Amino acid sequence: MIPENENYENFDEDEEDDIDEGFDVGSEPSLTYAMNLDRHVFVGKVDETEAIRQSVIKILNTERYEHEIYSWDYGVELQDLYGKPMPYVMSEVKQRVIEALTADDRIESVDDFTVKRTGKHTLHLTFTVTTVQEDEFEMESEVEL
Question: In whole angstroms, how large is the CA radius of gyration of the chain?
Fold first, then answer.
């Protein structure tokens, strides 16, 4: 026997949409510490596009699901690609990087993606990141698998 709910007949889906009204949805400020990757030190602070560029570097150097401190949306899944045939890896790494970067709400899209094999187990990635403020910047990354 299925219970009947007399209020269900009066349910209006438009009323559910009204619940979201009156709230402003915004993003968190992007001000963060500036990293000097060559010397492994923090040097001041960065904001806006430079903070997003730094975030891209951090995302691509963090394996997803590996560190409890990060949410499951943070990082890129590359660990399971180790030992796989390189043609498969080259086709898969593009989608995984795009998925990892667009999880950041400040990044609108990742375009002009190229993958080149530079060594037996090394890939060179180049791509363009477009932010929600419509700024664009080029990125390069080396991936060892």
Answer: 21
